[in-house]
Amino acid sequence: MKAKARAHANIALIKYWGKSDENLSLPMNSSLSLTLDAFYTETEVEFTNSINEDVFFLNGVEDKNTLSKISKFLDLFRIARNMNERAIIKTINYVPTAAGLASSASGFAALAAATNKASGLDVNSRELSTFARRGSGSATRSIYGGIVEWQKGINDKTSFAVEIDDASWDIGMVVVIVNREEKKMSSREGMKSTILTSPFYKNWPEDSQKDLKEIKIAIKEKDFEKMGYITERNALKMHATMLGANPPIMYFEPKSILVMQIVHELRDKGIPCFFTMDAGPNVKILCRLSQGEMIKNRLMEDFKEYEIIVTGPGPGVEII
């Protein structure tokens, strides 16, 4: 009753922002993402009768603050499997935690896969994505590699992710780590505040669905530039809804703006690249993977080399 899994982070190109059901983590709109090779989480789960409560270690340190959330997540599998054993969970994050780099996505996808195997439940990938969603909404997408769509659905069984493209046509990202520290406001809190107080939010779900439809056409046609422009526009619209919240929510930092300006500069020089940001200050640049090092070299005029990571598409979750 022991298994270890690896899952990779994903970065949304069409953002998920806001829940229609907090308990089930059902989103207000469908979303689309790119799974990244460079950022991942490895998690080992061992069920045993030798302990009376779950134990959770994050990066080698026992984490009691997150334990209740982890235990509640494992209960989904225990109930489905009709088992009572407690678990020892050991997680190593190769992603800065809670910094807007999708550590919760890779974290809960890896936890879901390891628990699925260790418990003997052995559901398929689609159903596994519905379990992962209950831990972190974006984790539903990290079950798969390449370009992934999270279909919002209408209930627990119909809200799941599907892979729509392997992203093998020279697609990559340059990730600029502006700040590795944990962000002051979590995505969960930010979503709630935006829905409740921003006058701009009411148009977000429907407008995002239009973006999703357009970007899927661009992907099918392998029109990279169209895909990029939609990605950048969608990110800015999401942040606009946050800026309209009361009090306003702003994840941008001065260096975030600098990266955006560099992207526009590079585009003016004929290099197709496009920025996106999640709920955190770090900026991700969608680009041709073959031009990633060129973009990195320009960024190194203003950033340290260790702050810039070039990555290609990542694989789906795997047992290791």
TrEMBL record:
- UniProt keyword annotation of ATP-binding present: yes
Q: Is Ion transport set as a keyword in this record? A: no
- Where is the Diphosphomevalonate decarboxylase-like N-terminal domain positioned along the sequence? 7-161
Name the InterPro entries for this protein.
GHMP_kinase_C_sf, Mev_decarb, Mev_diP_decarb, MVD-like_N, Mvd1_C, Ribosomal_Su5_D2-typ_SF, Ribsml_uS5_D2-typ_fold_subgr
Entry keyword set? ATP-binding, Kinase, Lipid biosynthesis, Lipid metabolism, Lyase, Nucleotide-binding, Transferase
Q: Which family does it belong to?
A: Belongs to the diphosphomevalonate decarboxylase family.
Record protein name field: diphosphomevalonate decarboxylase
Organism the protein comes from: Tissierella creatinophila DSM 6911
